């Protein structure tokens, strides 16, 4: 699958290539995203009702998604981040199923990347 195809439905390929022209570099960063632990930090903190730690995971993940132009995921993690910033754990929990769905979609697409 081409990098443009991978970005379909999960991000903005044109914006990404405007920032980083070499596809090889983009692929390298996407592979690093597969190893990023912020989503796990967010999930564990949400399970423990730890708003501060959940905010840390969501906020950091938001920045990573923005830098990689993973706009579909960014939009949802932004909502969760803002709920947590306001201390609204229940509000954040309401948005977690959609965040999980979008996160899994992004991971699945990135995992199809050619070497």
Q: Can you put this structure into words, describing what you see?
A:
The protein is mainly α and 115 residues long. Helices cover 78% and strands 0% of the residues. It has helices at residues 3-7, 13-19, 23-35, 38-47, 51-67, 71-85, 89-111. The longest helix has 23 residues, at 89-111. The radius of gyration is 14 Å and the shape is elongated. The mean pLDDT is 96.
Share of helix, binned: over 70%
Structural class: mainly alpha
**How would you describe the shape?**
elongated
Low-confidence stretches: none
Number of helices: 7
What's the pLDDT, averaged over the residues? 96
- Beta-strand share of residues: under 5%
| Cα-to-Cα separation, first versus last residue | 10 Å
N-to-C order of helices and strands? HHHHHHH
Rg for CA atoms: 14 Å
Query: Sheet bearing the most strands, described?
Result: none
Oligomer: single chain
Would you count the extended β strands for me? 0
What descriptors fit this protein?
7 helices, mainly alpha, 115 residues, 78% helix, single chain
Provide the fold topology:
Layout: H1 3-7, H2 13-19, H3 23-35, H4 38-47, H5 51-67, H6 71-85, H7 89-111
Helix pairs in contact: 4-5, 5-6, 6-7
Outline of the structure:
The chain has 7 helices and no strands.
